[in-house]
Amino acid sequence: MKTISLEQIKAVVPSIDLISDIEEGFVAYSLGQANVPPVGELILEKGEVHIKYGCLINDEYYVIKIASGFYDNPTIGLPSGNGLMVLFRQDTGQLVCILLDEGHLTDIRTAVAGAIAAKHLAPKNVERIGVVGTGVQARLQLSYLKDVTTCRRVLAWGRSEEPLERYRRDMEANDFAIETTRDTGEILRTCNLIVTVTPATEPLLLASELQSGTHITAVGSDTPHKQELETAILREADVVVADSIAQCLLRGEIFKAMQSGDITQDELIELGDIIAGRKTGRASDSQITVADLTGVAVQDIKIAAAVYEALA
Amino acid sequence: MKTISLEQIKAVVPSIDLISDIEEGFVAYSLGQANVPPVGELILEKGEVHIKYGCLINDEYYVIKIASGFYDNPTIGLPSGNGLMVLFRQDTGQLVCILLDEGHLTDIRTAVAGAIAAKHLAPKNVERIGVVGTGVQARLQLSYLKDVTTCRRVLAWGRSEEPLERYRRDMEANDFAIETTRDTGEILRTCNLIVTVTPATEPLLLASELQSGTHITAVGSDTPHKQELETAILREADVVVADSIAQCLLRGEIFKAMQSGDITQDELIELGDIIAGRKTGRASDSQITVADLTGVAVQDIKIAAAVYEALA
Known about the structure:
Rossmann fold; alpha/beta
């Protein structure tokens, strides 16, 4: 049994082609070649814990991922994310490896999924990237978008100036030209590739400002109570994509828009079916597309195995 | 973060008063002082994995237990059980400890629960203990029964002679007087404390042989498809006890007897309520009592914390 530290993980991740790996995961999932039980969830007084687990059928491993968010941790000098991933052999149940990632691989595979959604759904010419949020995930999303678009012009939204300024500084050091705003309407009016990465529980983006030719990847909401997009945005969209239809019926933006009656299940397309070419995503540059990413265990399965094998 | 090996676990377990610890866990559970989400389950081609997790409310830790059974493993020289337990801080989500128990603590806490059931439900004078099964759990159940009964006379049932003989030899070295049988009827006719510990999917004990003054603890069935007791045994019993009513409605002997209409939910009593003195278990030596143990996360939470603290 191998234990892999966060330091080792951070050192090896940049050398792995995670976009291809996780694309394969989404395709396997949509083809029914993955065994992914419902998400386990433990709600505590100060935080929440998600257990995502399963395997690709006939693969070598099964993976259990534990990831937590304790959102007041930063006030006592601790990161909000925590957790680990465990690989076992699928044929014998033997423990193969514990990845002490402290939530980092969940952050990475979430950002990679954002890049995959943009790769397959963004309009051909990305003029300006809109980022709604200023945290860890807002940084990682931009970093991984580098692999799928040449656009480096960014408008970032945040609730307050100080984190927005830190975000500008950090991302300019990462070769982006960053402007900032406190108005999410400006994001919708001036950006045609938008990523939302906040823990909001009330809509931040309103349908009244939505422009044709926009793609939005909604990353923040992964529970039944979080929401970043007004449900009418999903009604207005020409294409609504789920990372997992089964999961998006229970959590995230699609769950909210189903509840309000703004969309129906038969309008949903799964990301893996678009990657595989079995379904059409964006059909023209003027269409509006929305991808709702709630985070699927196949992403954890793929990244855990890739990191283990890169270090084996 | 601490990693505790199987060797360290095996060395420290005998020094811990697990009966009291796990009794406290059952009481907390039945009083609604535990946060225990539904069991996570991954069914693989060659095995099954259970994820049991949760916490006692306002306790220091939350615990996630992964335990697997790959029943063909012994044919290739590997143990069938595997897995680990992980403790995290309940207030910050920080990782505290990984217990590399390879399923051993699940075996132990299961045997301890059997002893607790016997302590509270067996007739005053145990004349002979009947054990249905000859595996690891059949051994551990007897070992922990030593703490709650002075009876050392045992009749053991197995499907074939060789494992029965090994069982006899091992348990006689452990101060028991062992006789063996291939007839489960003999167990019911001559033993008044019976423990069933097989992975059977068809009833082994039949109601027609059931005697008054018997207590049966059914340990083997922890899924919807396993079954050791004919459902009529639960109908004939004066008292039917569940380790967790919520869980026994979905798996185990009680699930089977509910399905067949032999018992109803309002007849069920929870083990923690009996331990706490809030409900009556056995009211006389002539009653028939049955305890159905499917394994509850509070057992894992209690044993993981106890082992960690004993070694801290």
